[in-house]
Specification:
This protein has 371 residues and is an alpha/beta fold. The chain has 10 helices and 19 strands. The termini are far apart.
Length: 371
């Protein structure tokens, strides 16, 4: 057995040894785990993982490589990737580079050979913590000092949001949608296009007046990283647009909509990450298997009196998974209905959004006719 060359030092003093792949730079991150069995490329390129070290609970990672068509963002910003077994010889006719090459190109450290079963249990039992990915010869004392002296970053959304407005058009469009980019996954844009939407993607700090000037049929608020309470620009924009056009929020967008209506959010012990969370649709009684990726949730009791109603509930821990105001044509979900590679139980939510936009367009036409 060859000697370990890398290790993890958690802020509680625990250590996990392994081997390097990807970049060999040191990093301090929040450690989280993901229970998905496939989709590591989508996970690595999901902006919601900015500054986070992701432990994959599925043991074999890298076996189908990386393909150009499957990215969720053009520049991955994940903090680090931690796996049990890494395969550097992909068996996939579509692959264009290995996972290690992708991580190396983007200066993202990876470590394999780690006892991920033990590590996932530790995160589940003790919660998410800060972790240092470093060389195997770094002492615990040195590592803990580095963690303590490294400030917690709170600029994640500003880091991953687009710098300027851009467009994603589709053939025979029926709707015009403005999407606030808080770290948006590209498959969301693809899904909006699929449902007949021309999409104008705008930076997170775009004002309400700038959005109204684009004359959209609906507003989409994207997923993204970090604490929703840090993203005051989006919260203020949503407050100023409330009731003026249909809105649909996913993940961080769900939390930001809740905050704009006066509800509260809190940090979960270890978050929800993976493609196997059962969610109850309160309205239909149906149960959806969902893909999730978030550290924060909306406080159930804080929704009362806001004008929002809870529309979906997580059946594992009873957390709020969806909110809706029919009067304002606003709704949101904590999970990812556009999830790639899946599951795809929740794509109907895009139809709900287009239905609200149909109502809104009809209302505008009536007002114009009366005028």
């Amino acid at each position: 057995m060859r000697e370990f060359n890398r290790k993890l030092i958690l802020e509680d003093g625990s250590e996990y040894y392994g081997y390097s792949f990807g970049s060999e730079k040191d990093a301090v991150c929040e450690i989280v785990f993901n229970t998905s069995m496939v989709g590591y490329q989508e996970i690595v390129s999901d902006p919601s993982y900015t500054y986070q070290a992701v432990v994959m609970s599925y043991p074999l990672i890298g076996n189908y490589g990386i393909t150009d068509e499957d990215y969720e963002s053009k520049v991955p910003t994940i903090g680090a990737l931690i796996v049990r077994d890494y395969n550097d010889e992909p068996s996939n006719f579509r692959f264009t580079e290995t996972l290690s090459e992708l991580l190396s190109d983007n200066e993202i450290p990876g470590i394999y050979g780690v006892d991920t079963r033990k590590l996932v249990r530790s995160i589940r039992d003790l919660g998410s913590r800060r972790v240092l990915i470093t060389n195997a010869n770094v002492s615990i004392e040195e590592g803990l000092k580095i963690i303590e002296e490294t400030p917690v970053k709170r600029d994640a959304v500003s880091l991953v949001s687009s710098r300027k407005k851009w467009y994603a058009r589709t053939a025979n469009p029926r709707y015009s949608v403005v999407a606030i980019d808080c770290g948006m996954k590209l498959n969301i844009v693809r899904m909006l296009n699929k449902y007949g939407c021309n999409v104008t993607v705008v930076p997170y700090n775009t004002t309400a007046d700038e959005i109204k000037a684009l004359n959209p049929d609906g507003l989409f608020i994207s997923n993204g990283p970090g604490d929703p309470e840090d993203v005051t620009e989006v919260i203020d924009t949503l407050k100023n647009l409330k009731g003026q056009l249909p809105m649909f929020g996913i993940c961080l967008g769900h939390q930001l909509l809740a905050l704009s209506y006066g509800a509260k959010t809190y940090k979960l012990k270890f978050g929800h990450r993976g493609g196997n969370h059962p969610v109850l649709d309160v309205r239909s009684g149906k149960i959806e298997i969902t893909s999730q990726n978030h550290s924060y949730a909306v406080k159930d009791e804080s929704v009362n009196g806001t004008g929002l109603k809870v529309s979906h509930i997580n059946l594992l821990d009873k957390t709020v998974e969806g909110l809706e105001s029919k009067a304002d044509r606003v709704f949101s979900v904590q999970y990812h209905p556009e999830s790639a590679p899946g599951p795809q139980d929740s794509a109907y939510l895009f139809e709900r959004f287009t239905g609200y936009m149909d109502e809104f367009k009809a209302m505008k036409q009536e007002v114009e006719k009366d005028a």
